[in-house]
Amino acid sequence: MNNLIIGQYFPGDSYLHRLDPRSKLISVFILVCIIFIANSWTTYGMLFLFTCISVAASKLPLRFIYRGLKPVFFILLFTFIVNVLSMDGGKPLIDYGVIHITSGGLVFSIFITLRITIIVMITTLLTLTTPPISFADGIEVLFSPLKKIKVPVHEFALMMSISLRFIPTLMEETDKIMKAQAARGSDLSTGPLRQRMKAIVPLLVPLFVSSFKRADDLAMAMESRGYRGDVGRTRFRELKWSSSDSIVLVLVIFLVTALILMRIRGI
Amino acid sequence: MDIIFNQLTHLYHPKTPFERIALKDINLQISSQSFTSIVGETGSGKSTLVQHINGLLKPSSGSIQIGSISIDSRKKVSNLKELRKQVGMVFQYPEHQLFEETVLKDICFGPINFGISEAEAKRRARWAIKQVGLDTDILSRSPFDLSGGQMRRVAIAGVLAIEPQVVILDEPTAGLDPEGRKDIMSLFKQLHEDRQWTTIMVTHSMEDAAYYSDQMVVMDKGTVAMHDSPENVFIQIEALKKLGLDLPQSMQFLRLFYAKQDLKVIKPVFSIEDTADEIIRALKTVRKG
């Protein structure tokens, strides 16, 4: 249960940690889109280099980046193999029965794999260097223009921060109830699949009950402290846009322009 | 059943940056049919210790022996079910584990998991519900319609119905009113004697530990600091203070009373009755002097 990396902020004080969540979110969004423009060794190389520099700037142990990549490792391998076998073009390298491997197909497969790797690395980097709460704050601010067309942005952001806040609580609770039911002879971790599926009910029912109860308590606590939604509400955590945020955005825009130009010129 | 901890160490999150020693080199023998209270500050390893007794946690090194079953860090425990059938565990806030449509089904959940026939499980459920002081009418109701105190009793009945020989109580009275506390504790004491349980209770209440148990284990930072009878533990006032523990209220009162009467002696006295006797005795000595 402890190797779940989503929402697992790794505390630190690096350049990336200090950035405003808004600039990080915008940059990641742009980069994930722009990856689809890359189509050559140079362009992929540039993007990969940029990612590596970001990883270095985050001062995170490489192990954590690796842990983010591990769950998608099979997807990577699968995509690579499927593409290598199905894409044609260039010189034939291996031609043995059903197995056709061409140089063009090989290059294309490497590109696709690299593309997914970069996307996963960048998003992992975002969640590792941004505390979940400021992540939710950043999203709320970025989507706030939608309030004009009556989208409940504040409520969505609140829902997001509340659910993020309660993930550890829920995990603790799950562990506790699992143990309590195990002590009564119901075991989730052993036995045939059918039996294990049945053992999930005694776990889920108490979890639902306590979650609803907790939600009720939380609503009561918020109301008793005068919570009345978004209107006229000031913020406890103010987001601060600093010069380094501008620098990062300029760098990203520069990278995007370069990539687009190179794509047009066919480099 | 004797329970023997043999150089048992438990690590949380081993081999990660979050590694933490929860229990360190525990050597402890809890003898059969004793009523042992485990006390200690929050985070001293009380719950971790008792969770080893029914195999919910495995030792990182060392071993634990429960009757004829032994668990160590290496092998996969095959007779876990047999162990859990003999070692019942009442968790903190046990009412959180209720899930069935009716009280009867919920109480039968444990016994049926352990391979008891349905008829026998129902018979046990009726017996257990009477033991915890509830009416058999309640068996057909939904556990979620009951009051908090009733839910707690139903959850306890669910453990009783397994008919364990060793019973672990993890703060069984947390969150109950004074009357409920007393009822539940006397119920456990009664069952302990009637069914010849080996009872192990984790508690923050020095009064309960002093009054109900015959052995006490004092935990401190993952080690056993003391293991003795309540009388011998509570006489070590200074040592207890260093471990962050109080005296039972009866002794706190007597201590202050003696100090005001310029008497030095302090005896381990736990019940209201004994405290009254002790005051009379002390007053008599004062008058004589």
Summary keywords:
heterodimer, A: 267 residues, mainly alpha, 2 domains, two-stranded antiparallel ribbon, 68% helix, B: 289 residues, alpha/beta, Rossmann fold, four-stranded antiparallel beta sheet
Describe this structure in words.
- The complex is a heterodimer of chains A (267) and B (289).
- Chain A has 267 residues and is mainly alpha-helical.
- Chain A folds into 2 domains: 15-130 and 240-265, no CATH class; 144-224, no CATH class.
- Chain A contains 11 helices and 2 strands.
- In chain A, strands 1-2 form a two-stranded antiparallel sheet.
- In chain A, β1 and β2 form a beta hairpin.
- Chain A is flat and about 70 Å long.
- In chain A, 18% of the residues are buried.
- With 289 residues, chain B is of the alpha/beta class.
- In chain B, strands 6-7-8-3-9-10 form a 6-stranded mixed beta sheet. Chain B has a 4-stranded antiparallel beta sheet with strand order 2-1-4-5, with no helix packed on it.
- The termini of chain B are far apart.
- Chain B is built from 11 helices and 10 strands.
- The relative contact order of chain B is 0.14.
- In chain B, α4 (118-131) crosses α5.
- The chains are: A mainly alpha (267), B alpha/beta (289).
